[in-house]
Write a structure and sequence with these properties.
With 319 residues, the protein is of the alpha/beta class. Helices cover 39% and strands 14% of the residues.
Length: 319
């Protein structure tokens, strides 16, 4: 019997023997790192990938290997998407809806981490506005393109353990700004959005799950100073202990594996509304542990409250 997938599994391991011909997938953030690898693996197995990126010139260069490796009818097309501008997000979503081509899986992979204090084009705190609100509007506006059997995969992070969401002060107007507190809020929001989206859409056969890709060296960390990076590493349970096993970095193909596993391999009813890591559903964990998910990130009432607050912030209601 084959061994179950785990932390060291790659995208190619997960998709071994899987044919995705005829599948259409939206992946955000295909200009570097996990987004490019996700698109590569899917196109190589026959999927048509619609890759979204803010910088299309950069994305075109980064995805040359995706197009070169496409097989079994797979391919790649690119669309412009700037998650830090709701005007741009709505234009992208409207163009996709107008095209009328459904998606089998949507993978919300794009994001920023540990940015200096700043604001999006709409005045939202950068990380919450980009990582959560941009995807919140995009996904809800294209929800009609998701059919029975479709899935939404939201990339979160173990960084959700840095902080719960703060629905009273989401833009740090009254709270001292800290890079990883803001990141934690946005990553918890990714999970709570997943919980509520799954609740709202599962009756029509559409499921959603959140994933933690692992600790990987990609462009996501481009805003981090050496001091901030070390503080982040020290905050990971066990890293500062001489007796604990060292944290293992993942390769990019290993990091993208859980997204692919959640979108195409796992059983929908087993991952719906939940949080996955290392190609399995994570268990709720409290205290100083490396794995698992904090219970506040799966709280259904908090998920409903975040949805309502998000609608208020973006000035749009979604059924």
């Amino acid at each position: 019997m084959p061994q179950p997938f785990g932390a060291k599994s790659t995208t190619d391991d997960v998709l071994a023997g899987v044919t995705l011909t005829g599948k259409r997938v939206l992946v955000t953030g295909v200009s570097a790192g996990l987004g490019v690898e996700t698109a590569r693996a899917l196109a190589a197995h026959g999927a048509t990938v619609v890759g979204a990126a803010r910088d299309l010139d950069k994305a075109n260069r980064a995805t040359e290997l995706v197009r070169a490796g496409a097989a079994h009818g797979g391919g790649l097309e690119l669309v412009a998407l700037d998650l830090a501008s709701l005007k741009n997000v709505r234009a992208c979503a409207d163009a996709l809806v107008k095209a009328g081509k459904p998606f089998d899986v949507v993978i919300c992979n794009a994001g920023v981490m540990a940015t200096p204090k700043g604001r999006t084009a709409d005045g939202f705190e950068t990380q919450f506005g980009t990582n959560h609100l941009g995807h919140f509007v995009l996904v809800n506006r294209i929800a009609s393109l998701l059919h029975s059997g479709s899935r939404l995969v939201n990339l979160s992070s173990s960084g959700h353990r840095f902080s719960d969401v703060d629905l009273e002060d989401p833009n740090f107007e009254h709270t001292p700004y800290a890079e990883f507190v803001a990141y934690g809020r946005s990553k918890t929001a990714n999970i709570l959005f997943t919980v509520e989206f799954d609740r709202r859409h599962k009756a029509r056969g559409v499921r959603a799950a959140a994933v933690h890709p692992g600790v990987i060296q990609t462009e996501l960390g481009r805003y981090m100073t050496p001091e901030l990076r070390q503080a982040m590493l020290n905050s990971i349970p066990g890293n500062s202990s001489p007796t604990a096993p060292p944290m293992e970095w993942k390769t990019i193909p290993q990091g993208a594996a859980t997204s692919v596993w959640t979108g195409f391999v796992a059983k929908a009813d087993e991952i719906g509304g939940l949080y996955c890591e290392d190609c399995h559903v994570a268990e709720p964990m409290e205290g100083p542990v490396r794995g698992g998910i904090r219970s506040y990130a799966l709280d259904p009432e908090q998920a409903k409250a975040l949805w309502a607050k998000s609608e208020e912030m973006v000035g749009e209601r979604f059924g």
